[in-house]
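Re: fe (ii) ion structure - here you go.
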Amino acid sequence: MVSQAQQEPALPHSSSIAKRAAAASMDASPAPPLLLRAPTPSIDLPAAKQDRADAASKAAAVFDLRREPKIPAPFVWPHDDARPTSAAELGVPVVDVGVLRNGDRAGLHRAAAQVAAACATHGFFQVCGHGVDAALARAALDGASDFFRLPLAEKQRARRVPGTVSGYTSAHADRFASKLPWKETLSFGFHDGAASPVVVDYFAGTLGQDFEPMGRVYQRYCEEMKALSLTIMELLELSLGVERGYYREFFEDSRSIMRCNYYPPCPEPERTLGTGPHCDPTALTILLQDDVGGLEVLVDGEWRPVRPVPGAMVINIGDTFMALSNGRYKSCLHRAVVNRRQERRSLAFFLCPREDRVVRPPASGAVGAAPRRYPDFTWADLMRFTQRHYRADTRTLDAFTRWLSHGPAQEAAAAPCST
Ligand SMILES: C=C1C[C@]23C[C@@]1(O)CC[C@H]2[C@]1(C)CCC[C@@](C)(C(=O)O)[C@H]1[C@@H]3C(=O)O
Ligand SMILES: O=C(O)CCC(=O)C(=O)O
Ligand SMILES: [Fe+2]
């Protein structure tokens, strides 16, 4: 565990961040302990009619630098969601994906067997031998600390655009009025092959030229994540006996989502959650976590911690890949807990298909032989469902499947005329 000194350094100004990001090898100085300020009656969290942008900026102020012993009511989660952590860590295999490149056939079969066993049960494994530059991974993690330490007004310049995933959010207070997660997030889209680097453009265009170096760090990081995702797709093909290239080609033109999670220390960690219980609606998640720990997976009714392994990245199957495997591989419930003393950072790269691709399992092989578990759908529909109609939780895919039969048509009927 990294011991975080408790001094409260001055908040770095964006230009100093730019210099540090340009150095691309940052030693994050400890973030100040961000504690909640009990909201005054004026912080009235978003109701259906209230202006959400206004509520968001008010609620965002809740993550303040003042010490309070109690967390505000909207951050308190139901007991069942916030059940205590199991003492037994989850035995997640660390798979050496370097074997896909070095011709080690025995190693390749061992890796495929490890992935098959993990994905058919709890859907999580870790990878080493991934080839992601350690200095780049460190710069991406520390860049998150730099961003989230900025004054609120600067972070709000990247405020999330309603109905999209991109942007800065504080506790999702612009979207939800209860069960607020104890986190701040910064999310942005990634796809390659564009005329100019989309992540660099996002940072410079949203936060200003000072943030271009930070954008370059995340541009490079996302490019590495895309390459690793395609390598993992090859391994998933092999482990499922699916024709070579089926999944890799499906994601060649992927349009993914990068999300930086920042979890401040919390005065009552047992009553709230950094990220509530959910299955990722996306296809595959590559999670780089710092060494504080907090990710937990629900297995046999217990919340089992996933220990951070230095240099390794956590991989988990999402709903979209569960459908692509016709249910053979599982998208499983997981959550993130917080603690009293240390901030925690995690970077989640969510691999998503191009919006209009039809999510359909291969018709051949063992996957194709079984009866279809899920209807065809597009990622655009599932994404829209999670952003406009349903808070991703423990039953997202089932709720989505039901919505598919009438939701899009109703939504279209309700949509204002385009003419
Ligand atoms: C499509 C998505 C929705 C969420 C981000 C993501 O890209 C994949 C994970 C989803 C999420 C993290 C699942 C838990 C609930 C959620 C609201 C959150 O806590 O952030 C979800 C994300 C969202 O912004 O809707
Ligand atoms: O921060 C973590 O460990 C998990 C976050 C997560 O599950 C998510 O953002 O989907
Ligand atoms: Fe997740």
